[in-house]
Amino acid sequence: MVLPCCVCIKTQEVGVVEDLGSFKRLLDPGLHLIPFPLSQVAGKLSLRIQQIDVVCETKTKDNVFVRVEVAVQYRVITESAYDAYYRLSDPRGQIQSYVFDVVRSTVPRMELDEAFASKRDIASATMEQLESVMKEYGYEILNTLVTDLSPDARVKASMNEINASKRLKEAASHKAEADKVQQVKAAEADAEARYLSGLGVARQRKAIVEGLQASISDFSGSVEGVTSKDVMDILVLTQYFDTLGAVGANNLILEHEPASVSMLQAQVNKTLAKNRNRGFLS
Questions:
Q1: Weakest mean pLDDT among 1-10, 98-107, 114-123
Q2: Using CA atoms, how far apart are residues 54 and 141, in angstroms rounded to an integer?
Q3: C-alpha span between 198 and 175 (Å, rounded)
Q4: What's the pLDDT at 270?
Q5: SS3 of 65, please?
Q6: CB contact at 8 A, 73 and 66
Q7: Is the dihedral of CA 132, 138, 142, 148 positive or negative?
């Protein structure tokens, strides 16, 4: 006895109807009546986008083993649902096999650094291979992504040590250059300070000489009967006592005799007379 049977197909799904084991037709989303038990829904296919994550281990051209993770996004082509249901029993296993084949034939031709920089090339090669094959079975490959490419942990540690050593070397070079500049600038500053100090001392001595000359001229003009020698003796004595006061401020003990002033005056007069004879003083 044949009875009508209600079948509901969800959105983004397609139903496969068989009559006594033979393919009859495809059911779109919605409510359908089929003659049961002659006809029945043998299966359903999802039209949603699906993703499979494939992890493949291989080695590079410089003999470094790497772990490559590839994400493949695919879906069933509505018009080719018959091929997707009847011609391929395990689409995920099929996709995984082709990913293994492409990755293990592409990465060994690259060195490790090149493999990191060529993730897009690996993904493109994988997609080209899958597109041409899976379309025959009713599947559309939407995208392939290389989500991770990681070498062995010991290789990672070695690469990090190499980069760290390189950075430390650059830092030491920059520090040495900075110390060099600092020392050069310090030497230049010290030389400039000494130069300015010398100018200050020279100007100070010049001012002292000019002041002494003015003092001698003013004193000789103001007091009658006083010669330039008398004024010079008084100034020398004054400077001598000023020097003793400055030295005494530093808590130093010096031997002092009254004859020291006369000896100092004699030395100054002798020096002035010698310079006058040589023509340095007029």
A1: 1-10
A2: 14
A3: 34
A4: 72
A5: strand
A6: no
A7: negative
Q: What is the pLDDT of residues 253-264, one digit of tens each?
A: 555 565 666 676
* Range list of H helices, 110-152: 112-117, 119-134
pLDDT tens by residue, 138-164: 999 999 999 988 887 777 777 777 777
pLDDT tens readout for residues 18-46:
888 888 888 889 988 888 888 888 889 99
264 HSE (CA, 13 A, CB side): 17
- Dihedral pair phi/psi, residue 44, rounded to 5°: -130, 145
Of the candidates 41, 53, 36, the one whose C-alpha atom is nearest the C-alpha of residue 1 is 36
Q: Which amino acid is at 55?
A: V
CB atoms within 10 A of CB 141: 21
- The mean pLDDT value for 88-116 works out to 89
The encoded tokens of residue 10 equal: 């969800």
Under DSSP, is residue 6 helix (H, G, I), strand (E, B) or coil? strand
Kindly report the length of the chain: 282
Q: Which two tokens stand for residue 232?
A: 């010079």
* Helix ranges (DSSP H) in the chain: 81-86, 91-106, 112-117, 119-134, 153-222, 228-248, 259-278
Which residue type sits at 123?
A
| Cα 198 from Cα 189, distance rounded (Å) | 14
Global pTM reads 0.55
Cβ neighbours of 263 (radius 10 Å): 10
